[in-house]
Amino acid sequence: MQKINAATRLSSNELACLIEENLSAKSHDFAKLSGGQLHTGNPTWFISGLKRAGYNGITCAQFPDGQFDLKIKDALEPFHRTGTPLTWWVGPLSQPADLGRILQAHGFTHNRDMIGMAAELDRLAEFTPPDLDFTFEAVNTPSELKEWMPLFAATFGISADETPLTLDIFGQLSFSPDSEWRHYALLVEGQVVATGSLHLGAGVAGLYNIATRPDYRQHGLGTAITLLIYEEAKKMGYRIGALQTTYPNALRLYHRIGFEVYCKFGIYQRSW
pTM to 2 decimals? Predict the structure, then answer.
């Protein structure tokens, strides 16, 4: 997809939509897995072939004309028929405005909210190296991804039993010729102490998977890996950065380095 040019001034609404479109593009990648399906339209839905809510879902649903119950029932049919649990992302493109409330009446549970942020990459704070002797490296091979994975898994609550599956999924999606994923790590004495990823969907550089090893926090590594990753995005020609966060501390960090809040996402899940 063509990269968004920051020289063209974007409205707050346009930036909010780009944040959602990048999140949707990232999620749609799960349809590339064996047994996956992607249905484009209104709504757009994807199935990964895995019976886990985080890998199946509905995005960009717009139901402006009433008959919401019938439309939601139709949208859920592919998941209901196969007993596939799913996530429904409700963001700035979603209609009606109270879609989250309607989903809860259809058996969905509100999982969490996420704040959507964006920035022009040329306006981010200047990089100041942390007070550690570190290296910043791209993850280019499956063996490097295997070294990267434990910190990511521990930070995002992925159990030891689930980690091999997660590693396999990331491996399938990260190293294909058309992959929009890029993964990065900070290393100290050869050990991964911080992780982060880019998803290059919707013409913007979406930041994901930021994690710092607990015993290396308070050294500015979260700020460092964020700014270094976005330097890589700039080298690739990207001018707009997007991200979502649930955590107040992360919200303050991203605001300090130049990101602004443009939208909110409600995350709803259900199983059968």
Answer: 0.94
